[in-house]
Amino acid sequence: MPLPAEFLEYPHRAYGMDQDRYDWQPADRRAPLHLKSGAKAMAFITIPLEFFPLDPPAKPFKHPGAMVTPYPDLRHYTTRDYGNRVGVYRLLRELGAAGVKATFAVNASVAERYAPLIETIRTAGHEIAAHGISTAHIHHAGLSEDEERALVTQTRAVLPEAITWLSPARNQSFRTPDLVREAGFTICLDWESDQRPLDMRTAHGPLTCLPNHYELSDFLMLSTRSQSEEEWADQILEAAAQTVAEHGARGAQCFGFTLTPYITGLPFRIEAVARALTGLAAMEGLEVATASEVSAAFAETSS
């Protein structure tokens, strides 16, 4: 049975990337950028602090880390809770030992429930980013504009100082960038279209997207693909080394990756985290910073 004709219709189909948020600009057709600091590349680390309800909604889909077995799925719930109670403090310890600052993407529900944890992160000098309300509040095209605006507004009320946004499950509707920018967020970690900050057009001004690489995520590599901790740490360091090595041809570039407290905060994985962090911190030509610092540094680059 053939598909309906409207399945082949897309209003933004055009030369380039089939969307109007940013221009098509391949890496080999633009002038190299140079950072004022002299660094050849920058890296940032995203650490999600998420609230997982025991009985999550299935529409539009369950968050990738959501409960798995029938209600009440206490096994997976307590595993996630372990990340916010124990694992995150191991990550904080290793970040401090390496002298590295990270961007903690915080669900509003977590900020309301775990105030001492949020204060510890702030005191250590890390960035607090907004990560929506919770893993049960997915942004998607099935929401009305008012419904989605309410999700962003509620998150903003709990995290008024955040300028960086990461959607729950990194999922958006077509209007999410407009609503996020309308609420005062200027940086977004959902898209990874480039290897330098990319200014997206919104109805309320530019929204800077940073390449937060899912392919380096601990959730994907260690949990979904079952790679070893040693392989994962090697891949992070190789990504950094290659990004630095490309400076001569492409100028300054950046990338990010995710550390999930209930995955890499476990005791048998923390040594790999420490090796990755110390390796990044010691790498010549690489600067490790928060997402907002990366955005600011590239805003001052010269070609």
From TrEMBL:
Q: Which CDD domains match?
A: CE4_PuuE_like (cd10979)
Any coiled-coil ranges, and where? none
Q: Give the NodB homology domain ranges.
A: 77-163
| Any one GO BP annotation for this protein | carbohydrate metabolic process
Instruction: Please name the GO terms that the record assigns under molecular function.
Output: hydrolase activity, acting on carbon-nitrogen (but not peptide) bonds
Do you know which InterPro entries this protein is assigned to? Answer: Glyco_hydro/deAcase_b/a-brl (IPR011330), NODB_dom (IPR002509)
Family the entry assigns: Belongs to the polysaccharide deacetylase family.
- Purpose: Is involved in generating a small heat-stable compound (Nod), an acylated oligomer of N-acetylglucosamine, that stimulates mitosis in various plant protoplasts.
Q: What is this protein called?
A: Chitooligosaccharide deacetylase
